[in-house]
Amino acid sequence: MKYRSSVTRQTSAQMSESNNAEYVELGEGLAPRLEKFQRVSVLPLVFLIFYEVSGGPFGVEDSVQAAGPLLALLGFLFFPIVWSIPEALITAEMGTMFPENGGYVVWVSSALGPYWGFQQGWMKWLSGVIDNALYPVLFLDYVKSAIPTLAGGLPRAIATLVLTMMLTYMNYRGLTVVGWVAIFLGVFSLLPFVFMGLVAIPKLKPSRWLVVDLGNVNWSLYLNTLFWNLNYWDSISTLAGEVENPGRTLPKALFYALIFVVIGYIFPLLIGTAAVPLDRELWSDGYFSDIAKMVGGVYLRLWVQAASALSNMGMFVAEMSSDSFQLLGMAERGMLPEFFAKRSRYGTPLIGILFSASGVILLSYLSFQEIVAAENFLYCFGMIMEFIAFVKLRINYPAVSRPYRIPVGTTGAILMCIPPTLLIFVVLAFAPTKVMVVSILAVLVGLILQPFLQYSENKRWFKFSTNADLPVLGSALD
Predict the structure, then answer these.
(1) 79, 269, 337, 357 from 352: Cα distances, Å
(2) Which of 48, 331, 437, 478 suits 242 as a labelling partner, its CA being 20 to 30 A distant?
(3) Closest Cα partner for 328 from 362, 356, 361, 363?
(4) Residue 455 contacts by C-beta under 8 Å, 6 or more apart in sequence?
(5) Which class for 398: exposed (0-12), middle (13-18), buried (19 or more C-beta within 10 A)?
(6) How distant, in Å, are the alpha carbons of 32, 278, 301, 350, 473 from that of 8?
(7) Is residue 165 exposed (0-12), middle (13-18) or buried (19+ Cβ within 10 Å)?
(8) pLDDT at 476
(9) Burial of 96 (0-12, 13-18, 19+ CB in 10 A)
(10) Integer CA distances (angstroms), 389 to 107, 113, 116, 127, 413, in order
């Protein structure tokens, strides 16, 4: 109840604040200090962002199948300008303005109120869990050529369960472990493509990059593949409370990760599309391992398969960290029952990890393309609210100190959000009807769930509390 009363005070503050108000420092003091747990520094954070967003080129193959080499390459060059850069910049500004676990949930709550903050948390958490269900699928798609029994049936189900349990335990052990494991996995995952590029030089035919057939483009698959591979920059904000000196570390890590991600997509696509004859039907998840065999032999293929397996492990643990710390941050703000804020002895959100792992297991039976379309649809709704919150906080609280501030005024902030918003509507328009219906039903569940939780608090079915180390949002912005 403390949280909801604070939002009432915040609304009054919004009505009375003038543009020439003195700066208010939110900065480093916003996150609760949990000094006994080691905090995440720049290098591990770069690789955590890398795995939140990308994890390497595994999964980009469908872009070539959908649209051919030229549009695939152009997509991974220009899509970051329209989408990734604005999202990363907004994450840097808002994540340093509110450096606490919960990230975008806190942004939307401070701008639009707790009801919409909860909806943001529900949609983004569900989108993240759906996204995480992809990685066991991708892992098994890459290794099934070496172990055919994993292609389906009971062996695949058992392998999915065992893999999920192993990676969930890694998350339980702590963010420091996850961060340094992500560094190792990131380097190992990209090395075979560097080697592939070297051995493929005599076989490269640059003319293959220019192949395009505009009359034969699967726009839905193309846009969903690009969108899935280049979004989730905001996910790292849910870990901001665990970052060392977030005002400096978060923007720097986002900048380095953006460069790393784009190069990690473009280089393998350049090599893969130019080194072998084009057969678009073969370009689906797992095809890079076949290209590796054609270019460098069976051992390079095994290396790519191993890199894919480890890359999917990295993406899984990074996404689960984001999802589980989001639930912890929501509980610390009184938006979820108090038990979601419980930490293990390693400082990790125990209940959040268990809930996220359960969702992954339930969804992992879906196909790659179904999962991508479903999580993109939910993610789009959440991003629209983030853009609204970003602009609204710029308008209502221009004088609040932001450790990192995008160097544009209010008009520039609005204009920056227009291209990605238009892109969101395009992605939504191309969503399959089945995915659209299921996703809208999921949104409706969130609209009902928040009043139910409020009712359960009033009836004392669950205990809710606000972390005393966190400032009241309304007074923090006043």
Answers:
(1) 32, 36, 11, 9
(2) 478
(3) 356
(4) none
(5) middle
(6) 23, 60, 59, 32, 10
(7) exposed
(8) 54
(9) buried
(10) 6, 10, 10, 19, 11
Tens of pLDDT, residues 361-414:
776 666 666 666 777 778 888 899 999 999 999 999 888 888 999 999 999 999
Alpha-carbon distances of 331 from 3, 121, 341, rounded to whole Å: 11, 11, 5
Q: What is the phi/psi pair of residue 313, to 5°?
A: -65, -45
Q: In residues, how long is the chain? A: 478
First-last CA distance in the chain: 20
| CB-count exposure of residue 183 (10 Å: 0-12, 13-18, 19+) | middle
CB 352 within 8 Å of CB 328: yes
Please report where in the chains the tokens 């070539």 appear, as a residue.
64
- CB 360 within 8 Å of CB 126: no
Burial class (CB in 10 A: 0-12, 13-18, 19+), 5: exposed
Maximum distance among all Cα pairs of the chain, rounded to whole angstroms: 72
Residue 236 has pLDDT above 90, yes or no: no
Q: Say how far apart CA 474 and CA 425 lie, in whole Å.
A: 32
259/50 Cα distance (integer angstroms): 10
Q: Which two tokens stand for residue 459?
A: 């009836």
Q: For residue range 107-135, what is the model confidence (pLDDT) as tens digits?
A: 999 999 989 999 999 988 888 888 777 77
Quote the pLDDT of residue 100: 82
Residue 60 has pLDDT above 50, yes or no: yes
Neighbour count for residue 463 (Cβ, 10 Å): 10
Residue 437: other Cβ atoms inside 10 A: 11
Is the model's pLDDT at 145 over the cut of 70?
no
Question: Among 20-24, 114-118, 172-176, 179-183, which range has the highest average pLDDT?
Answer: 114-118
pLDDT tens digits for range 452-477: 988 888 888 888 887 656 656 555 56
In angstroms, the CA 101 to CA 252 distance is 19
Which of 47-61, 65-79, 354-368 is the least confident region?
Answer: 354-368
Whole-model pTM above 0.85? no
Q: How far apart are the C-alpha atoms of 476 and 459, rounded to whole Å?
A: 30
DSSP state string for 203-248 = G--GGGGG---TTS--HHHHHHHHHHHT--GGGGGGGGGGBSSHHH
List residues bridging with 53 in a β-sheet: none
> By the 8 A CB rule, do 236 and 322 touch?
yes
CA 237, distance to chain mean position in Å, is 10
Residue 466 phi/psi, 5-degree rounding, is: -105, 130
